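Project outcomes to date are best conveyed with an example. Our students and postdoctoral researchers have been running inverse folding experiments weekly, and each run begins with a structure described purely in tokens. The record below, which covers 162 residues, was selected by the lab manager from last quarter's runs and is presented without edits.
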């Protein structure tokens, strides 16, 4: 069974709510799913290698920038080989800011540069996910992620191949 990690930074719970919704769209009989917050006290990110796919969520802060915990996570990623991992990116922002959900795009680019297989569609929610278009977008990312993941080789096979 392929393993999925839903990992996110959320200060007031909006991004966490997207993560919770995503989990409901994944059949636990088909995939092993873990959902967790970024933990600033443990930035050894080698545990990411235990997962075949990662759904990564972040809110946006300070005029289109990464929030602190996502920035620390990003720096710690330098030593981790994410090639072959399937990754989807989502987040919450506030449409009142000109650089709406910019952190989602920044993380998408970051994962792309690490040779991960990044799903093109991203989820950008204005604050809390309560509109039909939010749910449609979240379902779309989850479905595309699961489809790509199903067609990828498993982490175990990937280790042997390397
Ligand atoms: C100081 C500050 C700066 C922010 N800057 C942005 C921004 O540049 N772009 C954006 O889309 N949202 C911005 N936001 C809004 C948050 O991203 C938004 O409230 C989001 O829903 C928080 O997600 P969370 O509940 O998962 O923490 C900012 C919020 C604060 C408090």
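After processing, the design step wrote out the following sequence:
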């Amino acid at each position: 069974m392929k393993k999925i990690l839903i990992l996110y930074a959320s200060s007031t719970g909006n991004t966490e709510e997207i993560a919770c919704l995503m989990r409901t769209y994944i059949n636990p009989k088909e995939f092993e799913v873990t959902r967790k917050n970024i933990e600033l006290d443990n930035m050894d990110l080698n545990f990411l290698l235990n997962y075949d796919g990662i759904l990564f969520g972040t809110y946006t802060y300070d005029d289109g920038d990464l929030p602190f915990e996502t920035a620390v996570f990003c720096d710690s990623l330098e030593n981790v080989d994410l090639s072959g991992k399937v990754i989807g990116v989502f987040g919450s922002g506030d449409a009142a800011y000109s650089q709406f959900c910019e952190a989602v795009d920044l993380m998408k680019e970051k994962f792309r540069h690490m040779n991960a297989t990044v799903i093109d569609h991203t989820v950008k929610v204005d604050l809390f996910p309560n509109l039909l278009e939010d749910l449609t977008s979240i379902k779309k990312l989850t479905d595309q992620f699961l489809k790509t993941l199903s067609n990828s080789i498993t982490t175990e096979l990937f280790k042997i191949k390397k």
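The longest strand covers residues 86-93. The chain has a mean pLDDT of 94. The training component of this project remains on track.
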